[in-house]
Amino acid sequence: MFFTRKKDIVGIDIGSSSIKLIQLKSQKGTYQLQNVGLVPLPAEAIVDNTLMDSASVVEGVKTLIDSLKITAKEAACSISGNSVIIRKISLPVMPTEELEEQIHWEAEQYIPFDINDVNIDFQIIAPDDIDSSKMNVLLVASKKDIINDYLAVFTEAGLKLTVVDVDSFAVQNAFELNYNPDPDEVIALVNIGASVMNMNIVKDGISLFTRDVQLGGSLYNEEIQKHFGVNNEEAERIKISESAADSDRLKDILARANDTLAIEMRRSLDFYNSTAGEGKIGKVYLSGGGAKSAMLPETVSQKLGIPAEILNPFSKVRFDEKEFDPDYLKEIGPLVTVAMGLATRRLGDK
Questions:
Q1: Residue 71 exposed, middle or buried by CB count within 10 Å (0-12, 13-18, 19+)
Q2: Whose CB among 19, 186, 214, 324 lies 3.0–4.6 Å from 60's, allowing a Cys bridge?
Q3: DSSP strand pairing (160-166 vs 134-143)
Q4: In whole angstroms, how far apart are CA 293 and each of 104, 193, 210, 244, 259?
Q5: How far apart are CA 308 and CA 258, in angstroms?
Q6: What are phi and psi of 207, to 5 degrees?
Q7: Please, which pLDDT band fits residue 3 given cuts at 50, 70 and 90?
Q8: DSSP state, 49?
């Protein structure tokens, strides 16, 4: 998003628990799956969206590139959390070229950092509904040191980082690739990573509201570790298999963690509903590793009072069943949603 010929690139999502990769090939108005893979990361390799163990991240990216025999040299990644500022602002109507010259001056009042320490991008959304002399602009800013850290990792892994996106918008790209909602319907896209939950409220392809919450799938692991006295690896196994010596106790732990996540979603979505004029949210689509938690869609639907389901990033993507097991793709779908959105990006996109 911050960095023009259009060319297929590899989408690589570096999360706090794993690295996910998707490669697509444009084909007759749709996409053909070329490659998909993921590798785990050591605990604490990434903390609060900061690369703490770059060597492990580089090794993980290299492992994926080598094992999948990928020859492409350009990649897209995304960031989220405290390293990103997203604001919807109203500015006087002007040509894009003029806004490109002025955006740094306009952004200063909205960015809580030194303007020289951030990369800035923008997208003109639509004319202002109230004042025709103004337009709504989506402003995105990220600290340069965060971007530089990712640039260094990809360079060391032998790739050129050509697109830096935002997790919430990558999920939106994956959603729009696979679904055709009613233009008047307001959709909530909730991506639950290991340590961060990204929320993006969308209507007719336009992001109306975004929020990142420092809460994610690791909540389940922490509760399992605390109640069963096991390490993180064993907690992960118990969470995924949904089996433990005391199954009733496990169900209770998972249910309470589901409630915590759902209540946090409701807080953010209630805030949107209380301030938005674009209509109430009609449906929630869940993605990310945390979305695989047992009974979470049902809990979210109950707490929010609206339908909720798991987003399928492969719904309209073509793939050869001789090369890719459909059951495996269904299993990893929630984990690779961000990577899918990134794989649709092309250099020079807005």
A1: exposed
A2: 19
A3: unpaired
A4: 42, 12, 23, 15, 12
A5: 13
A6: -80, 120
A7: very low
A8: T
Distance from the Cα of residue 75 to its chain's centroid: 16
Helix axes 247-275, 218-228, angle to 10 degrees: 150
pLDDT bracket for residue 344 (50, 70, 90): very high
Task: Please give the pLDDT value at position 4.
Answer: 41
Instruction: Write out the two tokens for 254.
Output: 């998972």
Q: What is the pTM of this model?
A: 0.92
Structure tokens at 203: 């209507």
CA 325 and chain centroid, separation: 24
Please, are residues 54 and 232 in contact by the beta-carbon 8 Å criterion?
no
Give yes or no for residue 1 having a pLDDT over 50.
Answer: no
Helices (H), the chain: 54-67, 96-107, 144-156, 167-178, 218-228, 232-241, 247-275, 296-304, 326-332, 337-343
Return the pLDDT at 277: 67
- Quickly count: other Cβ atoms within 10 Å of residue 63's Cβ: 15
Beta bridge partner(s), residue 161? 75
At 87-101, the pLDDT tens digits run 888 899 999 999 998
Nearest partner of 310 among 167, 182, 192, judged by Cα = 192
CA dist., res. 189 & res. 210, Å (int): 9
Determine the 3-state secondary structure of 105 from DSSP.
helix
The confidence score (pLDDT) of residue 102 equals: 87
Number of helices and strands in the chain (H, E): 10, 15
Cα separation, 233 vs 211, in Å, equals 29
Residue 240 pLDDT class (50, 70, 90 cuts): confident
Q: Tell me the two tokens of residue 246.
A: 């005391």
Total length of the chain: 350
Report whether 193 contacts 288 (CB < 8 A): yes
Report how far residue 289's alpha carbon sits from residue 197's, in angstroms, rounded to the nearest whole number: 10
The rounded distance, in Å, linking the Cα atoms of 8 and 166 is 19
Residue 14: beta bridge partners?
Answer: 19
Q: Do 258 and 295 contact (CB within 8 A), yes or no?
A: yes
